[in-house]
TrEMBL record:
Naturally occurring in which organism (per UniProt): Takifugu bimaculatus
InterPro entries: ADP_PFK/GK (IPR007666), Ribokinase-like (IPR029056)
Annotated protein name in UniProt: ADP-dependent glucokinase 2
Segments crossing the lipid bilayer: 7-27
Molecular function terms, GO-annotated: ADP-specific glucokinase activity; metal ion binding
Length: 491
């Protein structure tokens, strides 16, 4: 009998897993099936909205993007800190820059628990090199092209643009760039390394648990802060005749040990470059993690007045708004803000910057340079995308651009062009208020029309939910990819 039982098990045992799967599907809770149907409907509608506008590959849009670039070394952040013997800080603490292991542990813990993105300059080059060497042995580590400008350039080339990229790169670096990207800048022997400490939602480090997937970036970059490609970029810009000029990567200047007056001189030169461009060319400034108040003030003087489009995330928006309102920089904000909160902050940034523009023009305080009215503002968050565009401006296809930005968020973070709804979820509310003001209109999230657009004052607002990736491949570069994809359909 015992032998017979063994034979029967060998014959039918392999069918048991299949039977278990069938039964699981049969008795699956009906709400799961409804949720799947809803995600599929939202995805289909977003794809349909994205496809409403195509890129003319015979007449590719031309985009000039500066500045800088690096090689990103991406590792599991918790695994690296554990390998380095860094213990979780009892008191998380914000540091403008990193000088030692204690500050690194405190700073990482500060942003890790809420799941907020951060980037810090490491003055201690020895410690940085030790981190890089330790990262080489971390399972799953990988190297990739990094830096705001190259990442945005790569996305725009993929989406059908020809790109002029301002940066100083090594031959190996340029070899991996798209054939539709032309580099303007000096050649360097070795690119700078930026260390990306990634972590998933729910990751644990000692007593801390991350509320969402994100990354903490450290670098000891001593080339990119000097915008060394700016001269060559400016020379080639006129001949390139771009439809759009994009500026990013300026956070490399944050807390960098410049000599007195060096940074202002560089930004003044950049202001001249932006001011000298044709008024017909749109100028977009992609913000990043800035913590030094003086550089934010410099940006408001030398860069922001020459941009008619701004891109930022849910941390950078209140940071900018705080400074515009005359208060201290907001280092850490809610990593999962409500739609109404973000929209109110966007309206206020739009209003304040355009009032500054009008006051400067009326009083003749433009410093002899051409300043621009802000006509586009894009804020990308984990849960949704929101874009404001001024009526009658050069920016087109706002609804489709918002949908494309939303889809790109999932594609980048999941590491796949094909969106799998079994690896996604909606975390935006089923309906949202358009403002925190009492009595404000509520807009429901409709699966067959997920991008909501409406007119206010002199602008249009569009909001789209993000199919948030639940199996994260990479968060670094997410904002750059999303901003670039949204811009492609609007030029």
């Amino acid at each position: 009998m015992e032998g017979e039982g063994r034979v029967l098990w060998m014959k039918y045992g392999s069918l048991l897993p299949l039977l278990v799967l069938v039964l699981a599907l049969w008795f699956r809770p009906p709400q799961d099936a409804v949720l799947d149907d809803r995600l599929d409907a939202v995805l289909s509608s977003l794809l349909r909205a994205e496809r409403k506008v195509g890129i003319n590959t015979a007449d590719r849009p031309r985009v000039a993007i500066g500045f800088g670039g690096c090689v990103d070394l991406i590792v599991d952040g918790v695994m690296l800190l554990n390998k380095m013997g860094l213990t979780p800080a009892n008191q998380p603490h914000h540091h403008d820059y990193i000088e030692n292991e204690v500050q690194l542990a405190q700073s990482f813990a500060y942003f890790f628990a809420p799941g907020a993105a951060a980037e810090r300059f490491m003055l201690n080059e020895t410690l940085f090199n030790e981190l890089v060497e330790a990262s080489r042995d971390i399972p799953g580590n990988r190297w990739t092209v990094g830096g705001n400008a190259p990442v945005m350039a790569g996305r725009m080339a993929t989406e059908g643009c020809d790109v002029l990229l301002g940066g100083s790169f090594s031959p190996d670096f340029t070899d991996v760039l798209s054939q539709h990207i032309t580099v303007a800048g000096n050649e360097v022997e070795e690119p700078d390394i930026h260390l990306i400490l990634e972590y998933p939602s729910g990751a644990s480090w000692g007593q801390y648990t991350s509320r969402r997937a994100n990354r903490y970036i450290v670098h000891s970059d001593d080339h990119n802060p000097y915008l060394s490609s700016m001269e060559d970029f400016a020379t080639k810009l006129e001949e390139f005749e771009p439809d759009l000029l994009v500026v990013g990567g300026l956070q490399m200047m944050d807390n960098f040990p410049f000599q007195a007056g060096e940074r202002k001189a560089l930004l003044s030169h950049l202001a001249e470059l932006l001011s000298s461009s044709s008024p017909k060319i749109g100028v977009h400034f992609e913000m990043a993690s800035f913590v030094e108040e003086s550089i934010m003030e410099d940006l408001l003087q030398y860069v922001v007045p020459h941009a008619d489009s701004l891109g930022m995330n849910e941390q950078e928006l209140p940071n900018l708004l705080s400074l515009l309102k005359g208060t201290n920089i907001t280092v850490l904000s809610d990593p999962n803000p409500r739609v109404a909160t973000v929209l109110d902050q966007m309206r206020e940034v739009y209003r304040i910057l355009n009032k500054c523009y009008k006051d400067a023009v009326r009083e003749g305080n433009t410093g002899g340079t051409k300043v621009k009215l802000l006509t586009r503002l894009h804020v990308h968050t984990l849960a949704f995308q929101a874009i404001i565009v001024k009526h009658g401006s050069q920016w087109k296809n706002t609804m489709s651009a918002t949908a494309k930005a939303s889809l790109t968020a999932n594609r980048h973070v999941c590491g796949s062009n094909d969106i799998d709804t079994t690896k996604a979820r909606l975390i935006m509310d089923d309906s949202f208020s358009v403002s925190r003001q009492e009595g404000s209109q509520r807009i429901p999230l409709e699966e067959t029309k997920p991008v909501s657009c409406w007119a206010e004052d002199d602008y249009e607002i569009c909001v789209a939910p993000v199919l948030v990736c639940t199996e994260v491949y990479q968060t670094a570069g997410g904002g750059d990819n999303v901003s670039a994809a949204g811009l492609v359909l609007q030029i």
